[in-house]
Every structure is written in structure tokens, then in C-alpha cells.
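Re: export button greyed out
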Amino acid sequence: METLNFRFNSKPAPPAADPALCGVVGSGNLEILIRPGDAPGVCQVRIKTSARGFGEIWQAVVGAFAADHLAGGTMVEINDMGATPAVVSLRLAQVLAEYRGGVQ
Amino acid sequence: MNASLSREWDSQRQSRKRRLEQAAALGFGKNIPTRKIIALLEAVILPGDRVCLEGNNQKQADYLAESLAECDPARINQLGMVQSVLALPSHVDLFERGLAKRLDFSFSGPQGTRLAKLVQEQRIEIGSIHTYLELFGRYFMDLTPNVALIAAQAADAEGNLYLGPNTEDTPAIVEATAFKGGIVIAQVNERVTKLPRVDVPADWVDFTVVAPKPNYIEPLFTRDPAQITEVQVLMAMMAIKGIYAEYGVTRLNHGIGFDTAAIELLLPTYAADLGLKGKICTHWALNPHPTLIPAIESGFVESVHCFGSEVGMDAYISARSDVFFTGADGSMRSNRAFCQTAGLYACDMFIGSTLQMDLAGNSSTATLGRITGFGGAPNMGSDPHGRRHASPAWLKAGREANGPNAIRGRKLVVQMVETFREHMAPVFVEELDAWQLQKSMGADLPPIMIYGDDVSHIVTEEGIANLLLCRTQEEREQAIRGVAGFTPVGMARDRRMVENLRDRGIIRRAEDIGIDPRMATRDLLAARSVKDLVGWSGGLYSPPSRFRNW
Amino acid sequence: MTRSTRKSWFEATARTRIAGLLDAGSFCEIMPPAESQPSPHLAQLDLPGAFDDGVVIGCGQIEKRPVFVAAQEGQFMGGAVGEIHGAKMVGLLRRAVEEKPAAVVLLIDSGGVRLHEANAGLIAISEIMRAVLDARAAGLPVIALVGGSCGAFGGMGIVAKLCSAIVISEEGRLALSGPEVIETVAGVEEFDARDRALVWRVTGGKHRYLMGDCAALVEDDIPAFRAGAAELLAAWREPEPGIAQLRARQKMLEDRLAAYGDFRDGLQVWAALGVAQPETVPSIDRDSLVALKEGLPT
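Workaround output, generated via the alternate export path:
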């Protein structure tokens, strides 16, 4: 297992009342928990992953998410069981939408 | 004296006659007792013969293969084997036991690793790895079998054969062998007094033997909808809206992966909602995929011609004779050679998956340490280039590739892949493993499955790249990088150029074609389990036990 | 039929099952993910944990009746019971004894103990068993719902049978040793775990229902599980525990062993139960099977 920590600048997300959870820690899948963070312009990310040695890819995937979405002021925690970047990107989009009030 | 009169002109017929006399001398008639098959094989096969052992990608002449492998290598040796698929352990035993020396084949699937080892130890000569059509073609040119060992469902007393729904390669093999002085031996599951229909007439068949158990058939085309992922649903939505709908693809072939199974299961739902029923996917060159059942039942599909059959689909096929090619007896007749021909010349699109793709768009499923071959994909996944009839999809693709005044069209060849496979292996690579494999095999060329210049579109979770619209090699490379996601190849893209390609519609993201990736859920699938497929079929589909959870 | 509108219980996550089982908006999670820590045992083994440790617990309502629920997540480590996972279920059952909801509903989807956590997992399972019995002794019905991809095996198979009643779907499975375990220990001749039709004929929902091991058989559909649980709750009276009914139960099990102990396949058992065409059982629908059982000699 590997633990990765990142901080990305991101435009502030509208403040949300409750944390949101998406996904399951199953083979090729992951769970993502998102809740308010400490800095409004920062998306803080902590990842625990079963697959070692993919830090650079995680940084690129989550960095692209933080750049393309209003994800500032959040703390994102991930438990991963070998999800591919495609699944990670999809779950990030899903959990952020739920966090902001299930806006589709 | 005229030179032409000095030689024998019927040596093959004479050889055949001597072999049959040899068998008769041992007391063999046309129907061989099960336990005597080895004695027959040793009587009619000669050292150095070219032998076709029917191994298709589904039906296997497994009893004859095992029996041949048990023959005495002192009597039978130096055989040259020709067979489309090398699937059974006994197929490789022939080489390990010294009966056979040379192999010409199309696909080796599960035996790929053992085969690679034999090549390294120089215990086997690989003639070539063919496509199916190419190998069938060579049966009638320079690889005609002396002896064909085939599998049939049933024989009658005279030796007429009923092949059952898994007709597959048998007609091509028998025709080449029986009409060029060869010997045809068939293993059958049963002997009956009256066949449902005659697929091979008795006078093309020399011997029949009842196998101790029915020939093995692999359920190769059954994809459990439960295993289709949301990412595959997303890619299927993009393919349907961004390719099928835009080109009006009516005649096509699908690969066997989960990516294309997802498309089949979105036809009655997503594609129907887009108003595409009757406008796409009406005519198919395809095995009877269970995942096609909902589309058939929804009225999407007019016709399906099959390479082979699929375990558990017989009753359904028989009850849908408007769709499938069935005999007067009600059961299907498949035919790999004809279906491959349809796929090559009568289809407007092939769509399938691969394990690796390079920056020129060349793709391969060959990986290090395994020699697998590609079966039919290289034929289906190629633009035959020569003259053919026009169709709207073919013309549109041709104009995109060669401008509005193009004098020929283009077949659509679509590769559909998630950018990473399991264990984070990137699909997009700078160099295919095929190049290293070429060196280790000592082959003339790398084992490329589909050539980049035949590929028209690449679909990944990141978007669709339309290679037809690329005008330079550099654009092509950046179009591929631009959908290669977070693979090293994808991350090395020229961002400005990729954005430019996107502005020109060469690269299109899900949002560019009006798809919200969050809408891509499994709820869109017309069936989410094998049991759902049984339900759609009205109970006519009977899945193999391993696919059941009830 | 244009698409599959069925909301499959088998395929759903624990959270989706709870959302569909309870009255809309009534669920209140105890120890939600944001307030929990993943298993320290898994971290020591270098494996990623889940915030809820694979079980979601809380309270809510089913048709306005207050219930406590625990739902196991079969996709996380096969729903296996670890220390935190088990402690959450035990805590829920104990709190139920104090707060007296109408029932505790266990959404079981588990292969049993989480072997990675060894003794902690084994102890957790035994504590769940004790807590279920304590709840029932206090007059509180404990209902098991079995229809997930992992079924109810090992220790959770026992827990299921300790409950007041079981609602099962055709896809659900209930047994002690899992098929792969039997094959590994006793050989493929004894039991072929890859023969999935056989696995279901021996452990699946239809078999369990015909045998009388489950109170209700429902479709693999979340609303069907909700309806099945609601119907059971409306009518259920938790019996007073007593030695006489335990003896009767023991005798029933001994008779069953004597009658069916040598059989190899559900087909033989169904024939012995008086099913005229046992080979049709796997393919008939839920309603037909329920009618078939009602018509059987008793």
C-alpha cells in the first residue's frame, strides 16, 4: 500500500453542509470521501492505494480534476483497490456532484 | 516421346487408393469402431503428410486430436499440420512427441505459451500465422491437406454428416481435402438412422468414428452483462452517438470483448432513445452473442450470419429463423469462411478491442512469451481497399479521408479501448511488444493485428479520435495521444495541438457529443445479468452452468 | 420491455440497498464514513481499508415502523467480518435492546470471518451471534435479508440461522462452508464449485425456501425485499424462548439429516420433498415456486 498527499489550487466549490461518499473499495474500484477543507482555494487530497508506484499518474489525474472543476475548499480522501484512471475520474466527478447537492 | 506423357498425372488418386486399400486390408469399413481409430490413423497417414486437424475457435475434433497424438512416432512423423486454431493440449503434444514438425495456423489462444517455448527450443517450424480467410485460401492453393480430421454432430450409416449449428470451418476443410485426392475422417457425437439435414455428402467422407464423448465446444462469445463497467457504458454511448449514428452504420461486425457487448446492450435503450432503431445495426456478421438478444427482441436486428454458434443459443436461434441462417430442419448453419467474407467485403464497420496500440495506430494482442495469432480480426479489421459497392457509411468515411471528390470510400475500422488495462498496464505505448516478439520468433515481420493505416477511429474513455481527418503523420500521432488519457503516451501530448485537433472535430470529448459522463450508469444496459438475457429470450436461451447464479 | 427497470439487490451496494429498503429519507447512519477510521489490521497488512469497514449501520423506518439496520458490503473483502465491522454490528444490536425498535434488520452479504484479522474476526463473529440471541431473548425480532453476491456463508451463515426469520431471493445463497472451501477440502468429486447451477441447487434461495429454511422468497429486486421485510414485520411475534421448541427444532434437523444426508444434489432433495418435476425448479419464476411449495405434502 502507498499513501499519497497532494494539494492543488482550485476555484472554490460552493460550501456544502454534509460530506459525500462515492464508490466502494472493491477490485478495480475505490471510495472517495469529500468534505470541507481548510483553505478555500485548495483541494487537498489524501490517497491510500493498494498499487505502489503510480504517484505520478495519481497526481496527473487528480490535478486535472482540480483544474477542471470547482473543487477548492475541500478535503478529498480516497481508499483505492487498483481503479484505473478512467474510474477515478468518473468517481471524482460523481462525488463532487453529490457533495454540491446532487446537482446533475 | 512427349515429356508430359512420361509422368503420372494421377499420383494423388493412386496414393489415396493405396491408403484406402491399406485400411481395407486391416478390415476397416467406412464406420470405424471407437477403439480402433489409432490403427486406422496409422494405416492412412504417411510420414510427411500435410494433415488438417479441425480445431476451430469453438468446435474441436478433440477425440481425433488425442488419438493422433497417441499414434506411434516411428510410423507417423514429419507431419505438417494445418489448422485454424491450436487450442487443445493434444495439439501441442503432436510436436512434443515428434509426430509433427511444421505448423500453419491462425490462432493458438490457451496454448500460446507452450507454443512459444517449442519455437525457442526449435522443436517446431512455424510456417506462418494466418488470418482465417488466408489459411482457408491456402487450403486451395499450396497447403491442401492429404488427410483431414474433422468433427461433426452426427453421421448416418452411409457416412453423410450433419454438422449442427457449429458448422464453422468444416465445409472449407472438407472441400479442399476431398477434391484433391485427400482422405476425410470425421469424429461424430452420434450415429443416427436419419439426419436432420445433410451438411456433407457421404461420398466426400471416407471414415466416421463415434467419439466417446461429444466434441468440446468453448462458450467463447458469452459475456456476462454483470461484468460490464460504467466506463464501458460511457465508451459505448460515445461510440453509438459519435460513430454509429453519424455514419449510419447498418452492416457491421463486433469483436468479442465487454466493450462491444456494452454497445449491444445499449441498442434497445440508449440508441432507441436517440431514435436510431432501423437506422443502425440492422445486418450483422457475428456469432450469436447472447448479449445481442435484447437488440433482436427490440426489433433492431434484421439479419445475423454467424461464423460459428454459441453454447446455449440453439433453441433461441431456431425460434428466430427470420434473423439467423437456419436450415429446413430448424437448426442454424454457420460458416466461418462465408461469414469472414461478409465481414471483409459486405460490412461497413468493424469495431473491436486490442491490448496495445502504438503512435501510428498499429495494434496487437501479442505479448511477450506467447504466440497467439489473431484469428479473424485482421480480416474484419481492415479496409479491403479494392473496388466495392457504395454505401452511405463507406462514402462518408471515404470523403473524410480523401476529400469530397474521393473516387472510393473507406470501411470504418474502430478500435475501442480503455487507456489502461487491469494492473495499470497502458494500452497506448511508444513501441508494441510485437517488435521484440518478432526477434524472439525470428519472424519476417512483427505480429501486428490491425495496421494503423486501416484504423479510422479510436474510442477511449477520454474521447474519440477520427484518424480519417488527420492530414499529416504528426496530426495522427497527436490525435492518438489526445485520447490516450493518463498513459505516458497520453501525458506526452502537445496540448496546444490537441486543442487545435479538438476545435477541428478530429478529437471529440464526451461533452462535445452531448454526453455527461455521470449519466453513464449500468442502469442503461438492457440486461444487467445473464438471467436478464434469459428473460429477454423468453426462456429460450439456456446459458452454461458457469454463467449462472440461480 | 425496453430496459431492465428492476433494481437488483444482488448488484446493489450496501448503501443503495438501505436507501431502497427504508422509508425515503428516514435513514440516520451511526458512525458515518466521515467519522470513522478504516481497520488498523488491514493497514498493518498493507491493504487499503474502507471508511465504514464494510458495514453500514443506523436506524430508520420501514413503512413507518422504526427499525435498526446493518448492511454488509459484499464488494469490500467479500463482506468479511473484521473487528470494527463486527463491533459495529454488536453495538447496534445492544443499543436496539435498550431502545426497542420494532426490529433489527441485517442485510447479510458475507463469506464469514475476515481471515486477515484472525482471532479478532472470529471473536467478532461470536459476539454477533451472542448479540442476536440476546436481542431475541429480549423480545426483539432480528430479520435477515439474504440476496447479495457473497450470500451468507461461514459465521454469517450461522448468524443468519440464529435470526428470527430470513427473507431470501433466488440469487441469495445460505450455507456454512462455501463451495470453494468444500471443493478444496474434500475434492472436486465431492463438490464442483465451478458448476454454478449445482452450487445454487444446493445453497441457493429456491432450495432454502423449499427446505423451509427461509420465511419468504422474493425477487431479486430492492422493492421486493422491502415488501417482504415489511410483510414479515407486520405479522411477526417473537416467540418466547423455551426448551420445548429447541427440542422440536433439533428433532427436525435430525430427521432431515436421516432423510437427505446421502443426497448429492438439490434435485434429489426436491424429488424427496414431493416435487413432481424437480428439474424444472431452477427455471420457474418466483411466484410459481411459492405456489409449488404451498402445494407440497407437509
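The two ends of chain C are 39 Å apart (CA to CA). The button fix ships in the next patch.
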